[in-house]
Amino acid sequence: GSKTEQLRALMSGYQDIVDTGVSLKNRYKSLFRKSGLPARGDGIYADESLLKNLPRPDQRFVGHGLYRLIESTEAEREKYCAAIKTLGRKFKEIKLLVD
Asked: Where do the H-state alpha helices sit in 35-91?
């Protein structure tokens, strides 16, 4: 396909990854809120050891799974960013956004 079609496909995939990441983070943070634990800011996603504070084993199990999914989704998002930036160099509009 054309460069425009390729960029459109990348942007659509990127939006899907971002939406999935937001959903996972909301579910992850809700585990802490349901237990009455503080869950403010993005620091909660950077420290897996916080899961030990969850009172029940089932919550910790679910939390570890969500944590791994968040990590892999973020890694995939970064790949999309790199691909978009590479392809975007051919588009004046994208160059203005990323430079």
From this structure: 57-88
